[in-house]
Amino acid sequence: MAPAKKGGEKKKGRSAINEGTQRIRKFAMKEMGTPDVQIDTRLNKAVWAKGIKNVPYRIRVRLSRKRNEDEDSPNKLYTLVTYVPVTTFKNLQTVNVDEN
User: Fold this and answer.
1) Residue 47 in contact with residue 66, Cβ under 8 Å?
2) Which residues form the signal peptide (predicted)?
3) 77-88 in b/e burial notation, b at 16+ Cβ within 10 A?
4) What is the CATH number of domain 35-91?
């Protein structure tokens, strides 16, 4: 009988990438309160940068709530998740930006 899989083991292949993007989507839904989440192409490239198996442990993102221009969409708002490149993750602060 094979031992049970523990939480610290690495996922393989596409499931690792899918779990990374699912976590980003889940985080954005929770923080912004919109069920519709769109991931920017630069963020997708940053997640895929180290290959299919080596998903980055941390990634800095910017969340922005936008008005949905699509008339037949059930949601009035959506969240756009963009990539923010940083050199180090030490001493980072949360910044709220007001766009007018």
Assistant:
1) no
2) none
3) ebbbbebeeeee
4) 3.10.440.10
Q: What is the pLDDT of residue 45?
A: 93
- Integer angstrom CA distances of residue 35 from 9, 15, 83, 90, 93: 30, 22, 20, 31, 26
Q: Mean pLDDT, consecutive 10-residue segments, the chain of 100 residues?
A: 64 76 93 93 92 87 90 88 94 82
Q: Which tokens go with 40?
A: 């920017």
Angle between helices 14-32 and 41-48 (to 10 degrees): 140
Domains of the chain, residue spans: 35-91
Q: What is the DSSP string of 30-79?
A: HHH--S-EEE-HHHHHHHHTT-SS---S---EEEEEEE---TT-S-SEEE
pTM assigned to the model: 0.77
